[in-house]
Amino acid sequence: MKSNKWGIIGCSAILAAGVISSGCKGNSESQKATAAASGAAASGGSKSADSPFVVGMVLIGPWNDHGWNQAHYDGLKTALAKIPNTKFEYVDKVNPADRPNVKGSQVADDMISHGAKFIIFNSDDYKDDALDTAKKHPDVGVVHVSGDYAWKDGQNFKNQKNLGNIMGDIEPAEAIGGCAAALSTETGKIGYLGPLVNDETRRIASSAYLGAKYCWEKYRKKPAKDLNFKITWIGFWFNIPGQTLDPTKVADDYYNGGFDVVISGLDTPEAAVQAKKANEAGKKVRYVHYDHKTGCDVAPDACLGVVYYNWVPSYFDAISKAKDGKYVGEFVLAEPDYANMNGEKSSIGFEFGKALGDKKASLDELIRGLGDKSVNLFVGPIKYQDGSDFLKPGEVATLQKIWYMPQLLQGITGNSK
């Protein structure tokens, strides 16, 4: 075992045919692990036939959070198992609460000094860290997940050739999750457990609302005014005691206040954990999980489904190019495979939950409509919360208009900023 200048304990594991064997563990606060994929000699980006191509990942939260961070960890590990002679390193919980005064770019510098040739930053919060790293290390490929610096048609384009963005086109799956909530609520009250407020989270929450509204009106045959869709932002992607609202309490407040379905937008599973407790106490509540495909495992009887990312295809493509010396930064918005959303080739999925029951048929119909474009939820008239036009009658939203939403949509209760 070893420690680097950040005081992060290291641990090695061998990855062969997708199986990890490990003989050590990090301490309770942090862990840094490596996984080497067995196979043929590297070409292109590697120093020699025997030197593995090292990929480093900087994670905003715990690698095993059952959500956003674990989805990235699992996705990268799986992608590298398919690419011969690669090595995986990560540092998790790189955020101001867990690692005060440690920047993501500093962690990346340390990884690169130890041989990393490709760096992935997995949070919107790392946009400047990713740009700084790419500028400082022009021979290293850098990916910033969820950002837009590599998007030539975006508002924040930076012409940095070794910096790319990868994000899943999660909005359709969010709409499916919103639909599941609307089909299942008996009180007409849906709570949304939100992280912090920015363009990304506004568009994701708004997509969930549009899906709920669509299915409330189409399948439940009820007017939109009778649907109560409320969002509470806790202040970060996961709970930081003393700095954010406590997501456990927010979830409980929803369930105890008549909101019988909670949609989670957090990296962590509080909505699921508290739904299980509420049901055990005699309430009938449901939840929609976010980020990691196994989210229903926490409380299967209460789970309507999981809106999740499959990072394997995008990571496999980017790292394969980088290893061959062919990576050029690009903006990748990875779409669902509507014919098989839970297949290994789909970058976006919706895992159906046990609690959905016979309502699955309606979701299947929505998925078909989204896939063949007969259903487009981003067509006007749609207004922002303040009553101004998001989309005029008949107007179809561009990607730019969806990506950079300055407000939540009318019909959602909760703060836009």
TrEMBL record:
Keywords: Signal
Entry-linked PROSITE patterns: PROKAR_LIPOPROTEIN (PS51257)
Gene3D superfamilies according to UniProt: 3.40.50.2300
Domain ABC transporter substrate-binding protein PnrA-like residue range list: 54-325
Species in which this protein is naturally found: Pendulispora brunnea
Domain of life, source organism: Bacteria
Statement: the UniProt record of this protein carries the keyword Signal: yes
Source organism phylogeny: Bacteria, Pseudomonadati, Myxococcota, Myxococcia, Myxococcales
Statement: the UniProt record of this protein carries the keyword Iron: no
Full protein name: BMP family ABC transporter substrate-binding protein
